[in-house]
Amino acid sequence: MDFKTDRGMNRATNKVRKQMSTIAPEQLPDPWLVDSTYLLKELSRIRELTLQIPLTLASSLPQNSVIDALWRLEEQLRYLLRLHTAGQNAFAEKATELAAASVPVRAGLKVVSIGSKT
Q1: DSSP character at residue 104
Q2: What span, in angstroms and rounded, lies between the C-alpha atoms of 65 and 71?
């Protein structure tokens, strides 16, 4: 590999790294639409395959970039799963509280009799 090709690979790698590090939380997928178990297993499998590639001087930077990107993606997925779990737990706690309450839940509605002058 000559110097020009190596420099081009560095530019491409830097571009990918910049794109991966600039993902805003609003751009992440909805956690309810993600098959989390499958994705975590697949990320782990791909990372293991990447680690089995024989290491050479020319392939070390791209290989490290792939491993880093997979690790970041896995961490983002774990974060989304924690958010999802926290939301489900909060919903279950609120439902339990409401079910235990003897007074029916009202959303600030006022009962008005039709035909009365109050």
Answers
A1: P
A2: 10
Whether 17 shows a pLDDT value over 70: the answer reads no
Q: The pTM is what?
A: 0.50
Name the residue type at position 86. Answer: A
Domain limits, the chain: 28-95
C-alpha–C-alpha distance, residues 42 and 74, integer Å: 10
Sign for the pseudo-dihedral over CA of 59, 62, 65, 66: negative
On whether the CB atoms of residues 84 and 32 are closer than 8 A, the answer is: yes
Whole-angstrom CA distances from 76 to 16, 24, 47, 70 are 17, 11, 15, 10
Digit-coded pLDDT (tens) for 76-99:
888 888 888 898 889 888 888 887
